[in-house]
Amino acid sequence: MLSEPIFQKKIEMKIPHLPCRNMALRRLQREFTRSKYDNSLITNVEICDENLLSWHATLLGQEGTRFAGQEFPVEISFTLLYPFQPPKLRFLTPVDHISVSDNGNVCMDILDDAWSPAFTAELILVAALSVICDSDERILQDVNEVIELLTTDLFKTTFCLTRFVNSYTLL
Q1: Is 58 in contact with 72 (CB distance < 8 Å)?
Q2: Taking the chain, what is the end-to-end CA distance rounded to the nearest angstrom?
């Protein structure tokens, strides 16, 4: 007699996950259908092995960048918690850029801390293309300026950091 209510509670606990799963698949189906429209930056969007949670796409390098005319195949993997959890994006071929790791993962805040359920797969693909087409020379220059400041004028750097910390911490 006591085991019946406990058994029913366990079943009831699993039921709320089903609408989330269906919602993720419905949204991905809708986004995939929309991705078939003409986009000069993204081509060949395909579902891998009939699995709506795994897509392959090709990004085209933008004119005026060192990647102009190049094609970048990417894989984007979703979970059943999409859009509440960000997908994973990976370049399938090596990309010589400071924001892309050796295994193809791209460093983008929107795939981590800045994720919002309002973002779409198309936005993620365009953002990835934007990241790699951004001049890594400019990024390296900014990093080198900070390193130079830190190494050449340690007293000034320490003073600035101390003033910054003191002005923004609540004591």
Answers
A1: yes
A2: 58
% residues pLDDT > 70 (the chain): 77
- 107 catalytically annotated: yes
Strands (E), the chain: 42-48, 51-60, 71-77, 88-91
- Within 10 A of 97 (CB to CB), how many other CB atoms are there? 19
Output the six-digit token pair for 89: 């994006």
Number of CB atoms found within 10 A of residue 126's CB = 15
| pLDDT tens digit sequence for 86-108 | 999 999 999 888 888 999 999 88
Task: Name the 3-class secondary structure at 91.
Answer: strand
Nearest-CA neighbor of 77 among 68, 67, 86? 86
Longest Cα pair distance anywhere in the chain, in angstroms?
Answer: 77
Question: CA–CA distance from 109 to each of 9, 10, 26, 31, 113 (Å)?
Answer: 39, 37, 25, 21, 6
Annotated active-site residue in 20, 48, 107, 160: 107
| Per-residue tokens: 44 | 């060949």
pTM of the model: 0.68
